[in-house]
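Handout, section B. The chain below has 90 residues.
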Amino acid sequence: MLVEGLGVNRYSLYAEFGSKQALFDAALGNAHGKGELRRSVAPSEEVGFFTASVLGLFVMLRAKAPPTLVESAARVAIEHLEALRVEPPT
């Protein structure tokens, strides 16, 4: 999805960032710098979680884990990411 959304191929992403971890680090650092994440969030600490989550999902898919298990793991990672966001003003 990211590759299609940016209109680039995955090799361009790796050439630019070098790894998934570096890509996540840049994305979270950018979001933090723009004030989109809670002030208490330490992007460098979250990068490890997301790198491990994505790699874990790849392993689960290759191991042919039940779809419900893969979906559950993905949902937890997404919920965690959403919890890092700044609360919208009410």
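Note. The first helix runs from residue 2 to 6. Compare this with the example in section A.
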